[in-house]
Amino acid sequence: MNFSTTLIQWYHQNKRILPWRNTTNPYHIWLSEIILQQTRVAQGLSYYEEFLRLFPTLKDLALADESLVMKTWQGLGYYSRARNLHATAKYVYHTLDGKFPSDYHQLIKLKGIGPYTAAAIASFAFKEPIAVVDGNVFRVLARYFGIYDDISLSKTKKNFQNLGNDLIDVTNPDIFNHAIMDFGATICTPQSPLCDKCPFSSSCFALQKNAVSQLPVKSSKTKIRKRFFHYALIENEDEVYIEKREEQDIWHSLYQFPLVETEEKDTREDIQKKLALQYATTTDQVWLYKDSVVHKLSHQHLYISFWKIKTAAALPYIRIKKSEIHDYAFPVVLWNQIVANF
Asked: Is 66 a residue of the active site?
């Protein structure tokens, strides 16, 4: 029995029941794939259902206000996904007459759609025999076939794509792709894989050679940047100041409290002075409200503090009623630490 047949048989007996697997609607499939980038299924499911409730068709999403899209996305992180999602919906609706391209090479031209997502939509919605290749697939194929090539290299990624395309069941490419992703997510996991439940245990290179923990090989290390964020909570009775992040940086288009960023972990006194200068007040009107909140992103670690500030100055920020603050999309760390308590 070959690899594809064994894998598909395993899938039919063990598949996860997920709503986006019961449709060939490219809008639903695309939406699920964008949400599940960098997001676990358990977390993404509720967002998928909420997006379809608010935007049941591609037209609804295309015509939606960006602020509502960002608000609905709040908590998922990697907010460029939401901006690209909205931009692509508008492009498909206005330029392509509301119809998704039906092949891989046209799909990959759309904003926010890379090789993996294009392959997923092409195979799930249109049965194009092209393999999905993500972390799960790298892991399964590297272990089973004993591939020690560095998966951080573009040449290796191309080789894995070609291997996946050779293995895929051309009659049921959608089933094959679902199967290999499920297998990597539930059996051939990064840590403590369930080799005793694996249908490939007798033929898996990594298991036979005691190399499971060594594969796949990924040599590149991401350098982590440290940033220090000091947020100003400036309240005036029932009002508070906020601002929208406009620069091309993390959390673009989300809202936050007025911010002073420093490159180093300054002393409390130094931060007080900088905040007092920034907001035209005196240091005795600046006091620490909450400190040492660490928020870890893929390439950055944010060290966040919140400061209460009193000032009589006219400030160039958005002034809203506290009762309205929940209408704005904030980064999840600000929501959890401050906004949810308003």
From this structure: no
